[in-house]
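G., the chain you wanted modeled:
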Amino acid sequence: MQHLAANSGLDIASMDVEVTSVSFSGNEANAAVNFRPKASPDQGMQMNYTMEKKGAQWIVKRKADSGGGPHGSQGGMPPDHPPVPKTGTR
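Predicted structure as tokens:
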């Protein structure tokens, strides 16, 4: 939460944040975290983080490729979505 508050620009108070899984290997951990806006709980995304233990705290080392946005992790539209015109073309 400290990492998000300092580095994301997100209004954390307006979101539900849930750690869905954590795996540990020595002083490193991999965590999957779901973020959902309280105003639109059917939307959200998942972020994957690699963390490193420094003293008594776990510090985010890097953010991995993540998915699960409003249109799925493939980045495309749902199968029944109407075509979207490409920008910059005629």
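Helices lie at 2-7.

Shout if anything looks off.
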